[in-house]
Amino acid sequence: MTQRLTAFGGWKPMFWAAALGILVLSLLPPATPLPSTGWDKTNHLLGFGVLALLARFAYPGPAWPRLAGLLAYGALVEVLQSLTPYRSAEWTDLIADGLGILIGWGGSWLAAYGVQRRA
Questions:
Q1: Whole-angstrom distance, CA of residue 100 vs CA of residue 80
Q2: Cα–Cα–Cα angle for 90, 42, 110, nearest 5°?
Q3: pLDDT of 51-107, one tens digit each?
Q4: Alpha helical stretches, state H, 1-119
């Protein structure tokens, strides 16, 4: 179903660039001007939604390892934030990450479905 989409070789570099970008933005001091949606939780939804979409096409195969890995990555980011003097870990951020993952995965499914229908 997603063969046409996964054939594009740029998914993996885009996935890893997005993952690194999220990590860097998550650990910068709050005084640093950062791109934002205006609300912290939608930043998490958007960031992890994009990661889920990219992961779906970058690494074909069973869904659960990618979904679990993305949620673990969100937990790692929260732990790393708790180790900084200017950030804190929040369960609600991890919940927003999880919702973003589900939304992004659903969006990737719709994209793959649309490509399949047009083929």
A1: 20
A2: 120
A3: 999 999 898 889 899 999 999 999 999 999 999 999 889 999 999 999 999 999 988
A4: 3-6, 11-27, 40-58, 63-82, 91-118
Gyration radius of the chain over CA positions: 15
Return the number of other C-beta atoms located less than 10 Å from residue 44's C-beta: 27
pLDDT in tens, 1-58: 445 555 567 889 999 999 999 999 999 888 777 777 777 899 999 999 999 999 998 9
- Which residue, chain included where needed, has tokens 């990590």? 23
CA gap 42, 100 in Å, rounded? 8
pTM confidence score: 0.83
Q: How far is CA 117 from CA 4, 49, 70, 105, in A?
A: 12, 23, 28, 18
How far apart (Å, rounded) are the C-alpha atoms in residues 86 and 61? 38
Q: What is the DSSP letter of 86?
A: S
Which amino acid does the sequence have at 29? P
The CA distance from 115 to 2, in Å, is 8
